[in-house]
Amino acid sequence: MSVDSLPNVVSRGSNKKPVSSEALATFFESTAAPQGGHLTIGYPVTTVSEERGPLDAVYVSPGTGVVAFDIVEGNSLGDYQTRQDDVFTRLEVRLKSHSALVERRNLKVDLHTITFAPAVAHVPEDSAYPVANTATISEVLSRMVKASPLPEVHERALSALQSMSSIRRTGTARPVRRDDSRGAILKRLEDSIATLDADQSHAVIETADDVQRIRGLAGSGKTVVLALKAAYLHAQHPDWRIAVTFNTRSLRDQFRRFINNFTIDQTGDEPDWSMVDIVQAWGASGGGNREGMYHRYCVENGATYYDFTAGKAMFGAHDALGGVCELALGEAQASKPMYDAILVDEAQDLPPAFLRMCYDMLRDKKRLVYAYDELQTLNGKGLPPAEEIFGVTSAGQPSVDFSGKEGRRRDIILEKCYRNSRPVLVTAHALGFGIYKKPSPPASTGIVQIFEQKDLWTDVGYRVSQGELSDGRHVRLERDADSSPKFLEEHSPTSDLLTFEVFDSVGEQNEWIANEIQRNLIEDELVANDIIVINPNPFTTRTNLGPVRKALMSRDIQSHIAGVDVGADIFFKPDERSVTFTGIYRAKGNEAAMIYVANAHEDFTSKQNQARTRNRLFTAITRSKGWVRVTGVGPEMRELVEEFNTIKASAFALDFVYPTAEERTTMQILHREVPPEVQKKVRGHDTSLDRLVRDLESGSFYREDLDPATLARLEALLRHE
Q1: Closest by alpha carbon to 61, among 38, 41, 40, 42?
Q2: Which of 284, 436, 563, 716 is the most exposed place for a label (fewest CB within 10 A)?
Q3: What is the pTM of this model?
Q4: What is the per-residue pLDDT across 213-246, written as a single tens digit (0 to 9) for each?
Q5: Radius of gyration of the chain (CA)
Q6: Strand order in the sheet with 9-12
Q7: How many whole angstroms from its chain centre is CA 512?
Q8: Does 631 score more than 80 pLDDT?
C-alpha cells in the first residue's frame, strides 16, 4: 500500500441483491484507494419520476469521484444500458440539488456508472456503459481515476449523499460579516462535520433483524445517527411502523426536524408521520405530544398505568420508571406486538425494564436499537450486559448476544467526538471523575468514581501514553486526532475555548454573564440559538437564573427557561431571538456553540452526592460545540478553578494513579448517593451541630451540661469514623 493509499470503508445497507452485493463489498474491503474511499450498499434512497428506492451501491473517493453500481444478481445482464441511464439520472438529480457541487450547470465531481455482474464469466466490452465482474472490476475502476483528485469535492459529495448537510440545517439565519467572528468560525465548524465517519455510517445504514446497540461519548453523534437511521428505515420500508423514544422531552422537536429534513432530502416527500412515532419514554393519556412508550404499552396490553407521582411513591424518584415497567410486564400475559423497529436514545437514563418492554413491543424481528453514553452516568457500570437486560432463552442461551462476528457488527462504538474539542472534553471528564480532586482524609484518592472495566477508556477514545491501566499503577490517558479531531480546537486559542470565572458575589457573576451574552450577539455574530445558560443544580434553576434573565431584559435581549416559559417539549425558540436558559436535565441531548455554566460552585465541595454533583457539571460542559464559560462564587468556585488549573497544567490529559480494588470500594462508601430526604436531615443536623460548637466555644454552656449517655454515643461514633 502506498503512502497515499488508505483502506476503503464499506457500509452494508440492504437491497434485493445480497449475494452480488457482498461480492462487491468483499472486493472493496480487500483493496485500498488513493486517499481512501467509501462504498455504501443500498443507499441513498432516491426518487425520480415517482420511482423511489435505494441505489444498489455507490462508491465515492477523491480519485474516481462518484461511481454508481447497477448490480446484477444472476448470470443475465438484461438491459443494463437503460438501468445505467436510470441510475445516472437519479444520482445526477440528487447531487445537482447541492449548490456547492455545481459550477455553471455542471457537476464539480465526476459521475460514473458500472454494471457489476460477478456471476457473468464473460462481460461485454462497452466503454460507454462499463460492465465488470470480480476479475475485471479493478481494471474498470482504474480507467476512472483522475490524475489530480479533489478531496474537498469528494467530502462535499459524500456529505450530499449522506444528507448530512440537510439534517444539520438549523433553519436560523446567521448573518456573518467578519471572517474572524465566532459566527464565521461556527459556520466553518458545521461545514467540517457535515460528513459521517465510518462508524457513524455503519450505525446508520447497517440494520440487523435483531438488537443493535450504539455506544459513544457525548458529542459523538448518537442522536443524529438514530434520526438518520429512523428516516432511512422509513424511506426503505414505508410499510414499517417505527418508534423513536428517549428520556428528555425536549429532544422531540430535534428528532422530528432531523427525520423530516432527511426524509425530504432522500425522497422529496415528508415522512408519513402515521408510521413514525416520536414519543417520550413515560407518557400519559391525552394523545399527541403527551403519548409515551410506557403509557402506550399499558393501554395496548391492558396493564395498569401509573403516572410519575404514583411511581415515585412506590419505587422512589430514581427507580420509578423501572418499577412501573416491571409491573406492566408482569401484568401483560402476552405482549401485543406493535412495531417493526424501535430506536432508543439516552438509554443510560432508562432502566433495563424499559428496554425489555420495548423488546416485547416488537414483532417477530426484534429490531431494537439503543444508544447510550457510559460516561454520562460516570458510575463505573453503565447499562447492565445484554443478557442481564434481555434474559436467556429456554435453552439457557442469551436472548441477545453481541459476541461473534455478526454480534460485533451490531455492537457499534462511536469513539470520535464531533462536538467538544479535546480540551473541553478532557476537562469535563477530569472534573466528572475527580481525577485531580484533592483527597479528603481518610481517603487516599480524590477520585469520586471510576470505570470498573478498564478497557472502556480505550473504547471511548483515550490512549495510554504513559504507564498502564492497572490497579495502583500510574497511567496517563490522552486523546489523539483520531478520537478528537484537531479542527475542533484549532479555530480558537485554548484560553478562549473554555474559561473558569470566579466572582465575589452572585450579582457580579450575573452581570458578567449578561454582558458577555450581549457581546456574543452584537460583536461575535452569534444568534440567540447559539447560546445556552445552564444551572447545574436542578433545584435552584428558576431562583438562580431569574436575575440573569432580568439583566438581559434590561439590555432588550429576550430569554426563556426551557420547559417552563414554553411547552415541555420545547428547548430552543427558533422563530424568536430568545436565549435559552435551562436546568441540567432539560439540557441533556441538546447543544449550542456558547455554553454558560452558571453557579457551578453550588454543592461542589459537599461531602454528599459528589458523583451526582460532578455528573451535572460534566453534562453541562459537554453541551458545547464551540466555547464554554464556567462561572461561580466564593471559596467553592476557587477550589473548582484550582482543579481546572491542574487540568491545564497536565496539557489536558488524565494523569493519575489507578485506584485499587480496595480504594474503589472505599470510594463508593465515601461518596455514596444520598436521597434528598436524607440530605435535608443532614443539613438540619449540620446547623444544629454548628450552633452547639459555637455555644461550647463561647462558654454559653459546658460539656458537662450535655446528656452523658447521648454524649458517649456521639464520641463512640466519631472514634469509629
Answers
A1: 38
A2: 716
A3: 0.76
A4: 998 887 888 888 899 899 889 988 999 999 999 9
A5: 28
A6: 9-12, 38-41, 57-61, 65-71, 111-116, 131-132
A7: 31
A8: yes
